Amino acid sequence: VAAGDSGRLYVGTEAGLAIFEHGRFAAVPLGEGAKPVGCECLFPDGEASLWVGTREATFRIEAAGVVEVFRADGLRLPAVCFVRDSGGRLVVVDRAGTLYEHLDGAFEELIVEAPEPFPGGRVLAADQAGGLWIGSYGSGLARLADGRLRRWSQQANGLPSSHVVALVASAGVVWAGSENGVFGCPVEAFARSTDGERPAVWRVTQADGLPEKVCTARRQPAACITPDGMIWMPNGPAVAGFRPADAMTPLVSQTSDDWLT
Question: What is the CA radius of gyration of the chain?
């Protein structure tokens, strides 16, 4: 779901894109003669437009109509998540986990300095320190800053899970919805941690009221912060909300693998 201009509400579904306006829903055709395709992501841009990623293509909805993004525009595969970083740069990740930035009307692949590949990136969030967070299904978390990529996982750093399906960065903390509940950690604590070190995290689990252990999301954005400060994430068949302050018990580094089961 994404809010557009003048009270419009866009809804992405398995059958395609719909708009709710003047008290009724109407389908939004994506491309001439295009068959209905499931929406994978929606991103309302600050430039009075809406980006839409489907299973087969990427589109930009503007006042003048629907514009399809082609390979010639630099995006090799359909987009699965968009975000604007703290500097206003539009960043997108495609189905293969490749990162791009949008410059002068075209997409250019981001040059990333990393000791090893970071496969499976599908979720993006931006922190106020200029970092771009990438969540993956199987490889954990990564942060891109100044062209350098650092990564943390369950296997290497003892995170609660390497399967991240939702991300929110707020007030200097990054929160991740995963297959083992929700966990959060200050951006600075992640940055200070050395390779192989276990960063201390806050957790939200079934003991705190989550309906299920596994956070679930196939499409983005899957998490949000409401004006009252609540963070909402999909969890099993429900949507779970929590106040970050309630989850921020004193940080204690983990010393056993008990929480990994």
Answer: 18
What span, in angstroms and rounded, lies between the C-alpha atoms of 40 and 215?
17
Q: How far apart are CA 216 and CA 15, in angstroms?
A: 20
Q: Which of 51, 81, 20 is nearest to 220 (CA)?
A: 81
pTM above 0.90, yes or no: no
Token readout for 45 is: 């841009």
Asked if residues 110 and 118 have their Cβ atoms less than 8 Å apart, the reply is no
Distance CA 167, CA 165 (A): 7
DSSP 219: S
- Would you call 188 helix, strand, or coil by DSSP? helix
Q: What is the mean pLDDT of residues 89-98?
A: 92
pLDDT given at position 259: 38
Length of the chain: 261
Predicted pLDDT of residue 260: 36
Please confirm whether the linkage preceding 78 is cis (ω < 30° from 0).
Answer: no
Q: Is 182 exposed, middle or buried (0-12, 13-18, 19+ CB in 10 A)?
A: buried
Q: Chain-centre distance of CA 101, in angstroms?
A: 15
Contact 177, 223 (CB under 8 A): yes
Q: Per-residue pLDDT tens for 179-189? A: 999 999 999 98
Note the pLDDT tens digit of each residue in 9-41: 888 888 888 888 888 888 888 866 555 578 889
Ramachandran region of residue 86, left (φ > 0), alpha (ψ -120 to 50) or beta? alpha
